[in-house]
Design a protein that fits this description.
The longest helix is centred in the C-terminal third of the chain and has 22 residues, at 182-203. The protein is 54% helix and 14% strand. The termini are far apart. It is an alpha+beta fold.
């Protein structure tokens, strides 16, 4: 059995327990994070979102009854809206308190959209959470529908990624090399790698998750040659011109192998080839 399924069962058992005590106050509970992506392992936490009405939310962030209820597990209330605890010395739970009314109104970061896209609902009063998530997902998906409206300032667009990947590979890295700023050149290449991985998520119609989970798309969509190019490009061997050029060449090769064409730039004093 995949570890995600094992942790889902643990989460479901926990939800059944607290439902008995707080069922009238909690609107819904869902799983987010690595379990919802199906990429959990023995080091993963169980991330639970507890959905509340605004009235209950305001009350709970001032004095959360879950803390007293979970006292046998020595819960740690890291912030007013986040509680963590470990069950039987094995599974770590991270519980986030959410207001349904606030989620309806708020504009989320793209990583939060990824969590929402993959949420697994364990408890839902009158399908409120299911309907809310579906509605928000429809709004989020509009980011992928009208390709013509995309611009280089829209981080949900492929155009944004193609422009900035090319800008760093073919302008900022050569300029840093000319200045002999090898640390900055390597940092620029690290940024290209991050943009490339985000692009893989966007290209496949998915919002990218928080950094700790982003590599999963590499394993899923790249072939072995492409994965090896990316892995080799991540390695910094020396802080010198030769190693910067090696990494840049690997990333340009990967970008081309993915079927993309680089944008060329101009500088009258720097060799951008």
């Amino acid at each position: 059995m995949k570890y995600s399924e094992i942790l889902k069962k643990e989460a479901f058992n926990f939800v059944q327990k607290i439902k008995k005590s707080f069922g009238k106050e909690i609107i819904g509970i869902s799983i987010s994070g690595s379990i919802s992506y199906g990429s959990a392992d023995e080091f993963s936490d169980i991330d639970l979102d507890v959905w509340l009405s605004e009235e209950v939310y305001e009350k709970w962030i001032n004095k959360c009854p879950l803390v007293d209820y979970l006292r046998e597990y020595n819960p740690n209330q890291e912030t007013p809206t986040n509680i963590s605890f470990i069950v039987k010395g094995s599974y770590k739970f991270d519980v986030a308190l959410l207001s349904v009314e606030r989620i309806k109104k708020e504009e989320c970061k793209i990583e939060q959209k990824a969590n929402r896209q993959n949420s697994v609902i364990l408890l839902d009063t009158d399908n409120i959470i299911k309907n809310l998530l579906n509605e928000k997902l429809k709004e989020d998906k509009k980011d992928f529908e009208d390709k013509e409206s995309y611009s280089v300032t829209d981080k949900n667009s492929e155009s944004y990624y193609h422009f900035y990947i090319s800008a760093y590979l073919n302008y900022h890295v050569p300029v840093a090399l000319t200045r002999k700023r090898f640390e900055q050149a390597h940092l620029n290449l690290n940024w290209v790698i991050n943009l490339l991985i985000e692009l893989l998520w966007i290209k496949n119609g998915l919002f990218f998750p928080y950094m700790k989970s982003r590599w999963a798309i590499v394993e899923e969509v790249l072939n072995e040659n492409q994965k090896n190019l990316l892995k080799d490009a991540q390695v910094i061997k020396e802080y010198d011109e030769e190693d910067v050029k090696r990494r840049r060449k690997l990333l340009r090769e990967l970008y081309s192998d993915l079927g993309y064409q680089e944008i060329r730039f101009y500088h009258d004093k720097v060799d951008l080839t």
